[in-house]
Design goal:
571 residues; mainly beta; Immunoglobulin-like; 9-stranded antiparallel sheet; 6-stranded mixed sheet; 2 helices
């Protein structure tokens, strides 16, 4: 019995020593290159039909290489570590392939007629002609391993003819904005200037019917990363409103926005140009001494936003911006070149840089003034409390549609009206020809707007649509705030008994407030004003920045005035 015990103990010791020897062994995964190649098959040749653009045109299948084996059966490799990418090309050399990333664990991919037609166009296939299309799967295990490739699947594709030289900018609701971007080579890369409001949401529609937007996910989406699948979100600009040079690259599936805050003219004409978002023009008014020609340069400094910077202003890359002349066409350049403009006559002249046509920008001088009229920032409310002293007004929050909003304290006997000018006594009244909430320029006191009731109401008016409405059916009964320290629990605010619309709360800065603050009405997330870094509040808008004066480690009294649309942080 003792001998048996000694033999067993010796055997256990030997096993322990053997295990220790194995501690330094190298575990390898899959093939020597890392990933395993796959076998690729497809559904066959296809003639694409424009009238059946959403129909299924191609199905690709490949074997599963996501489950890796190791040289040690005791060690299991994680599933889905291999990154597979479809490569599609018009040549069998795959010099500049179109790449489609495959989701982990995915072993098939389907394309509609319009999707495959777009790919065929990018690959250089001629319309209405059967041409070979080459497809393979590239497999990589990690960044420091060689790629493995599947067999090359070849098929004949007959694309239909489409105009891919223009991309159409759609509003957030997918209505036509009237703005376009150009793709001179019809290669899926679109560019041009856009006049955008802060955080403007939009889509890009290609001639093949594909709508592009940002990749969407629960973490807040991926700014400047493209997607055209059903789960994508619309594009959105940074918080800066103004002129942007936009490039949408559907091949690399990313886009960028170069914000241009100002342009300076030098040479025979000097001065700072003014930008008009609605017309997509820069202008400079000046007095010309004589008619003739002038040599000028136009330059500035922009902020480049892309997939690396996101919409963070601090991360945006400072970029020189200039206009140059190449082959008789204006182009964007890091360094300016001389531009010659014809001065039509002596006297008042307006220099105009028109960027509205993405295929041909123009710079010319015209007689008279072409400077855009500055949009008024406030709209006065008269008579809301039987006073007519211009101390109550609405604040502009949507420049494109001339929409104004603020809280208004109503206690009136004869109704109220809007006025555009301080002490101008112009009347914007209820349109007497309709029972709807429509506005009309009418000096009659008989058509005053009837108040919604007594109390504090969010009042909204649009001079673009010539209509008015109220943010809520009931008056404001409570106000709270959320977003300080990136915390989104509602903090109740205390009303000021002497000043309607003024509320306060005590807040301590313990962390950054990266998304701004929402001032919420009546305990609802549907009705709110948002903070901007200049100390203003705007209806249903919030800047992606800390409120003015925010500094970690301090305690503040946060005061909002919903009637004046302002806020302050006071230590």
């Amino acid at each position: 019995m003792k001998t048996t015990k000694y033999i067993l103990a010796s055997l256990l010791a030997a096993m322990a020593l053997t295990a220790c020897d194995k501690d330094g062994d190298i575990i390898t995964v899959g093939t020597a290159a890392g990933a395993q190649s796959v076998e690729l098959t497809g559904s066959g040749d296809v003639v694409l039909d424009k009238d059946n653009a959403t129909g299924l045109a191609l199905t690709l299948n490949w074997t599963d290489n996501s489950r890796l084996s190791t040289n040690d059966e005791r060690v299991q490799a994680p599933v889905g570590t291999v990154v597979n990418t479809l490569q599609i090309s018009g040549t069998n050399t795959f010099e500049s392939p179109i790449e489609v990333v495959i989701e982990k664990g995915e072993t098939s991919k389907q394309f509609t007629a319009q999707e495959l037609n777009s790919i065929a166009g990018r690959a250089g296939l001629e319309s209405n002609v059967a041409s070979p299309l080459y497809i393979r799967v590239r497999s990589v295990l990690s960044g420091n391993t060689d790629a493995q490739y599947s067999n090359v699947y070849q098929m004949l594709v007959t694309p239909y003819s489409i105009d891919m030289s223009v991309g159409f900018v759609l509003n957030a609701d997918r209505s036509d904005s009237g703005c376009t971007l150009a793709s001179p080579n019809s290669d899926g890369i679109y560019s041009g200037f856009m006049g955008a409001s802060g955080w403007y949401n939009w889509w890009l529609l290609e001639g093949n019917g594909i709508v592009w937007g940002n990749v969407g996910d629960d973490g807040g989406g991926k700014p400047f990363v493209l997607s055209s699948n059903d789960a994508h979100w619309n594009f959105w600009f940074p918080g800066q409103a103004g002129c942007y040079y936009v490039v949408v690259n559907t091949i690399r599936q990313e886009w960028s926005a170069l914000y241009i805050p100002s342009l300076t003219v030098s040479g025979d004409i000097t001065g700072e140009m003014t930008y008009d978002r609605k017309t997509n023009k820069w202008t400079l008014a000046y007095n010309a001494a004589t008619a003739g020609t002038a040599t000028i340069q136009i330059s500035g400094t922009g902020s480049q936003y892309n997939s690396q910077t996101g919409t963070d202003d601090a991360s945006a890359v400072s970029t020189p911006v200039s206009l140059a002349l190449e082959d008789g066409q204006l182009v964007l350049s890091p360094t300016p070149s001389d531009l010659t403009v014809n001065i039509p006559a002596a006297g008042e002249v307006s220099l105009s840089l028109d960027l509205s046509n993405p295929k041909q920008w123009t710079c010319e001088a015209v007689e008279g003034s072409d400077t855009p009229v500055e949009v008024q920032k406030i709209l006065y409310v008269l008579g809301n409390d039987d006073t007519w002293n211009y101390d109550q007004y609405l604040t502009l929050y949507d420049e494109d549609n001339l929409c104004y909003a603020a809280a208004v304290n109503f206690n009136c006997s004869w109704g109220y009206y809007f006025s555009k000018e301080y002490q101008g006594w112009d009347h914007i009244n209820q349109d007497p020809n309709t029972t709807e909430r429509k506005l009309i320029a009418d000096s009659s006191d008989d058509n005053n707007i009837q108040a919604p009731g007594k109390g504090l109401y969010v009042t909204i008016a649009s001079l673009g649509w010539m209509s008015y409405w109220y943010g809520m059916d009931e008056p404001i009964s409570s106000v709270s705030c959320a977003g300080f320290n990136d915390q989104w629990d509602m903090i109740a605010m205390t009303p000021n008994a002497e000043h309607p619309g003024v509320y306060t709360a005590q807040v301590t800065a313990t962390a950054d407030t990266p998304w701004g603050v929402q001032v919420l009405l009546n305990g609802s997330w549907d009705y709110w004003f948002g903070t901007y870094s200049d100390g203003s509040l705007l209806w249903t808008k919030r800047e992606n920045a800390a409120p003015k004066g925010w500094e970690v480690g301090k305690t503040y009294t946060f005061t909002v005035d919903l009637c004046k649309c302002t806020y302050t942080l006071t230590e």
